[in-house]
TrEMBL record:
<dbReference type="Pfam" id="PF00478">
    <property type="entry name" value="IMPDH"/>
</dbReference>
<feature type="domain" description="IMP dehydrogenase/GMP reductase">
    <location>
        <begin position="1"/>
        <end position="89"/>
    </location>
</feature>
<dbReference type="InterPro" id="IPR013785">
    <property type="entry name" value="Aldolase_TIM"/>
</dbReference>
<dbReference type="InterPro" id="IPR005990">
    <property type="entry name" value="IMP_DH"/>
</dbReference>
<protein>
    <recommendedName>
        <fullName>IMP dehydrogenase/GMP reductase domain-containing protein</fullName>
    </recommendedName>
</protein>
<comment type="similarity">
    <text>Belongs to the IMPDH/GMPR family.</text>
</comment>
<dbReference type="GO" id="GO:0005737">
    <property type="term" value="C:cytoplasm"/>
</dbReference>
<dbReference type="InterPro" id="IPR001093">
    <property type="entry name" value="IMP_DH_GMPRt"/>
</dbReference>
<dbReference type="GO" id="GO:0006183">
    <property type="term" value="P:GTP biosynthetic process"/>
</dbReference>
<dbReference type="GO" id="GO:0003938">
    <property type="term" value="F:IMP dehydrogenase activity"/>
</dbReference>
Amino acid sequence: MGSLEAMTKGSDQRYLGDTAKLKIAQGVVGAVADKGSVLKFMPYTMQAVKQGFQDLGASSLESAHDLLKSSILRLEVRTGAAQVEGGVHGLVSYEKKSF
């Protein structure tokens, strides 16, 4: 469905809501200010990937594939709830710094 603004512009027709007398919004309208170039985040991202491979015991993408094929490395699917549970929770406050 979408925001009321989107529904008035026709998105309600896609979801068979164009005949409904009562429109229920399931979204919001917002904007994000430009954060600038992604280039300043690339060194941070590259280092995070390198450390992730180090945690896996792999020195490259190819060696990570080899670990998967040999069943030394195993992956599991996690739900959104499991990801939230695996994060920081239960603290009164904490500060997350990107870098």
